[in-house]
Structure formats: C-alpha cells, structure tokens
Amino acid sequence: MGRAFVYVILGGGVAAGYAAFEFSKRGISHGELCIISEETFAPYERPALSKGFLLPEDSARLPSFHTCVGTNEERLTPKWYKEHGIELVLGTRVKSADVRRKTLLTAAGETISYKILIVATGARALKLEEFGVNGSDAENVCYMRDLADATRLVSVMQSCVGGNAIVIGGGYIGMECAASLVINKINVTMVFPEAHCMPRLFTPKIAGYYEDFYKSKGVKFIKGTVLSSFENDTSGKVTAVILRDGTRLTADMVMVGIGIRPNTILFEGQLTLEKGGIKVNGHMQTSNSSVYAVGDVAAFPVKLFGEIRRLEHVDSARKSARHAVAAIMAPEKTRGDFDYLPFFYSRVFTLSWQFYGDNVGEVVHYGDFSGRSFGAYWINKGKLVGSFLEGGTKEEYEAIAKVTRLQPVVADIAELERQGLGFALSV
Ligand code: FAD
Ligand code: NAD
Ligand code: ISD
Fold first, then answer.
1. Best mutation site among 53, 65, 66 for ligand 3 pocket (most ligand atoms within 8 Å of CB)
2. Nearest CA to 17 among 51, 65, 68, 56?
3. For residue 154, which phi and psi values (nearest 5 degrees)?
C-alpha cells in the first residue's frame, strides 16, 4: 500500500513551508507535491515559539505565524495547501528511507515514493540524559523545539508565577526563554558552563552588556558549572537542582536549552554527511542526485568563506529551501550556486540585535556600550568578515549586511574603531 508523488518534502518546519511556497510560485500541478511531518500542524515560523508565543498577553497563536509571514509573504494556512493541491501528511513520522528505491516508510506502515526528495528534517533538542543527568522527563522540566514543547512550557510557566525557574544553557534558547520567564513574573537563575552567555557568537564585552541588562531585570547568573542532578518530590516533580560545584538551587521549574543535533539518522550510510549534517553542493543537492537537503540538517558550501558550514538559523532555512526548489525547477543553464551571507538575530526584552558573516579574527567594538546602540566588526586576514549591531535602524542593519558581503580590506584597525558604524554607512 502506498502513494507516489513527484516531489516529497520530508519534514514540516520552516524550510518545508518556504520550499512549498517556492514550488507554488514556480508552478506545480495539483497532487505532485506532498509534505510529510511528524508535527500535527502545517509549517510555522519556529522563531515565534520562544518570543511572541510565550508572552503573557497578546501572545502569538496559530494560525497567525504559519510560514511565510516571517518574510512578509503569504500566510500558508492548511487551506492554502489544499487550494494549491499540496498534500499535507501530518502527524506522520518517517521511520526509514531508501534512497536507491526512492521510497520512505512511515511509522504507520505506508510507503511513499518520490522522484525528487527534499530532506528538511531540522534538528532535535539535546537531552540532559546525553550529558549523564537523569530525570529530565519530570513534568516541570521543559525543552523547546516545537509547538508541543512551547505549549507545555506555557502551562508550566502559568503554574509557577512568582516562583523560581532554573535555566540550563546560555545559548539562544536559554537567553530568549529566560527573558520570557521574567516577563511572566518568574524569578530566573541561568546556569551554564562557559564564562559568558552566547559563547558561540558574543565577545566577552558584548555578552557583558546583555548579562548586565538581564541582571537589571533580576536574572542571576551562575557560570562555569553544569547541572549534576535533580531533587524530586514524591510526585516526581523537580524541587531543586544540584550543580557540579555542589550548589543547591530550589526550583519550581527548569528550562533546558543545551544545543541540538541535526536529524540525519534516516540517511546515515546512504548520503554523505559532513559537519554533523547532510552534505550538499551549491544546488543543495546531496550525494544522491534525486535528494536535496535544506535548513538545519544541510551542510552547504558558504561561497563567501570557501568552506562547508551547517547553520541553525531561520534565514538560512528559508533561503536554502527556496534555492533548492529553484535548482530543481529552473532550466539548467539558469541555475546558480547558493551564495549565502550568514545572518543571525535575536530579540529579548526591548533589545534587538543582528549579526552578518563570520565571527573569526580580531574584534573591533564600537558605539555606546552603556547606551542603546553598539556593535562590533570581525577582521580576518586583513578583511572585514563579520558585523554585529544592537539597537540599529533598518538602514543601519542593511549597511552592516552590505559591508560584510563586500568584505573590504581593513588597513587601519584604529581608524575602523574610530569610524564605528559610520564605516558601514559610508560603504
Ligand atoms: P525545523 O523547523 O526544525 O523543521 C523540521 C521538521 O521536520 C519538524 O516539523 C519535524 O517534526 C520534522 N521531522 C523531523 N524528522 C522527521 C521524520 N522522521 N518524519 C517526519 N517529520 C520529521 N533562528 C533564527 O535565526 N532566529 C530566531 O529568532 C530563532 N528562534 C528560534 C526559536 C526556537 C524556539 C527554535 C527551536 C529555533 C529558533 N531558530 C531561530 C532556529 C530556526 O527556527 C531553525 O533554524 C529553523 O526552524 C530550521 O528550519 P528547518 O525546516 O530546517 O527545521
Ligand atoms: P545553543 O547552541 O545556542 O546553546 C547551547 C548552550 O548550552 C551553550 O551555549 C552552553 O551554554 C550550554 N550547554 C552546553 N552543554 C551544556 C551542559 N552540559 N550543561 C549546561 N549547559 C550546557 O543551543 P540552544 O540555545 O539550545 O538553541 C537550540 C537551537 O535553536 C540552536 O540551533 C539555535 O540556533 C536555535 N535558536 C536560535 C535562535 C535565534 O537565532 N534567535 C533562537 C532560539 C533558538
Ligand atoms: O520572531 C519571529 C520571527 O523571526 C518570525 O519569523 O516570529 C516569527 C514571525 O514574525 C511571527 O509572526
């Protein structure tokens, strides 16, 4: 028993939504495309989950944040897919794939075959158990990857108002969820192993600004240590966390954000992997010519850096998905390689920052670190390769994106520091 499609998108997240939109713009016939997703919702803008979705008032709820509202395009509701003849196979986990036979087998036992497959399986949140800590399945311990997690977090938060939350991890999830917990009137202590928050991107000086801002909102930081165990009450609920340095912190809830792993498992041994993801070429095509990979799961050539990278951000999910569809549908001679400028951003409390490029080499900070707008440039091998800006205007963010793409030679670092944001605005 089974169904056959020309195009199958495996995964129903951000990349899937943007790929479907690109297919519809380029023109496909009804019944040619299907999206298979373990989630029970049509693709949505995942970034909303740790921001608008967690607000105590005017909170974002579906259908308001289905893709592709994140780029101010059409909102692809379930009705949109129906009208465009795109089959949504929801609540369906694919348990195995056979790229030689071009088939997928679902957990319910259905075989779905394709001519072209786009793998958009994203990633899963790492569990504390993978670091040797047991008990993270307690009802007041939360993770955050999908709408089910976010819905659960809202319910746990609502039962903890005025209480204590321990946030484990100082990355994106830790920072964004800590801000949302504070907004929900919960006392927050953040615990992470590094010397400062957002260690993958921030310099100590940039991190210091955000940590001071969080402290002004009542957040406490315990750095350089990790969780070692939980204490529970008789119902199994966590009541305290014990840190490796022996500290005991009472807890009404725990929020965990300790990184992700790309969902590659179905294709291990069948497709070439690199950087923990599925390796693709400039057309987002894998080592099997009928299979493409996009979004968090794809390791693709970043032309600007001359190397393969795997990014975990929404802009690359959206653009890599659109590029793959363009490569599949466009006449061969018009197909170009994906030429992507990495772009990351976040919004917490009243703050908002953007980053473009690569954070390698020497750092030049600029602006007013005691005020509302400041930034940094990264200079590698004599060229400007990365730019960060907090509190910028639309024009200022466009300027740092433009200058980073151009990679100008920087002969005089002191002069760049003196010009600060003015340097980007003058290019
Ligand atoms: P996903 O959106 O994760 O989608 C993967 C889909 O595949 C899911 O629907 C999953 O259920 C499905 N799937 C996986 N395996 C199977 C299977 N075997 N069978 C069926 N279905 C399967 N990035 C930013 O740049 N800015 C932000 O502000 C930001 N905020 C974020 C907030 C949160 C809470 C999270 C979790 C991420 C955030 N990100 C942000 C990262 C961004 O959302 C991801 O980079 C993006 O979602 C990746 O898109 P994707 O389609 O590759 O994967
Ligand atoms: P992350 O990689 O941003 O941060 C992981 C953090 O976990 C590290 O910074 C470290 O502080 C901590 N950590 C690692 N091992 C630990 C341990 N054993 N104990 C305690 N802490 C430990 O990952 P994340 O914050 O979990 O985010 C998950 C994914 O969601 C990422 O791909 C991220 O890019 C994405 N996301 C992005 C945004 C955004 O771009 N604005 C927002 C939310 C989520
Ligand atoms: O935070 C975000 C973000 O970056 C999105 O794309 O929320 C979504 C949508 O803007 C929600 O409407």
1. 65
2. 68
3. -60, -45
The pLDDT-based confidence of 287 (bands split at 50, 70, 90) is very high
Report which protein residue has its CA nearest ligand 3's atom 5: 70
pLDDT for the residue numbered 332: 83
Atom of ligand 1 nearest to the CA of 11: 7
ipTM of the complex in this document: 0.97
Tell me the C-alpha distance between 188 and 167, whole Å: 7
Is 120 in contact with 321 (CB distance < 8 Å)?
Answer: yes
pLDDT at 109: 97
Burial of residue 93 (CB within 10 Å: 0-12, 13-18, 19+) is: exposed
pLDDT at 372: 87
SS3 166: strand
Cα 284 to middle of ligand 1, angstroms:
17
For the CA of 345, the closest atom of ligand 3 is 4
Share of residues in the chain with pLDDT > 90 (%): 98
**Pairwise CA distance, residues 112 & 311, whole Å:** 29
Name the closest-CA residue to atom 9, ligand 3: 70
225 phi and psi, to 5 degrees? Answer: -150, 170
Q: Which residues contact 57 (CB under 8 A, 6 or more apart)?
A: none
Average confidence (pLDDT) over 108-129: 98
Contacts of residue 333, Cβ cutoff 8 Å, sequence gap at least 6: none
Which residues have a Cβ under 8 Å from the Cβ of 325 and sit 6 or more positions away?
Answer: 19, 22, 23, 26, 118
Please check whether residue 44 is in contact with residue 147, taking contact to mean a CB–CB distance below 8 angstroms.
Answer: yes
DSSP-derived secondary structure for 19-69: HHHHHHHH---TTSEEEE-SSSS--B-GGGGGTGGG-SSS---TTTTBTTG
Under 8 Å between Cβ of 36 and 43 = no
Atom of ligand 1 nearest to the CA of 294: 52
Provide the token pair at 195. Answer: 């010397």
Amino acid in position 234: T
Query: 34 Cβ partners below 8 Å, 6+ apart?
Result: 3, 5, 7, 8, 9, 86, 87, 88, 89, 112
Mapped onto helix, strand or coil, the DSSP state of residue 204 is helix
Q: Please state, in angstroms and as integers, the Cα–Cα distance from residue 308 to each residue in 72, 147, 285, 404, following that order.
A: 30, 30, 13, 19
Distance between CA atoms of residues 294 and 408, nearest Å: 30
Give the distance from CA 326 to its chain's centroid.
23
Claim: this prediction has a pTM higher than 0.95? yes
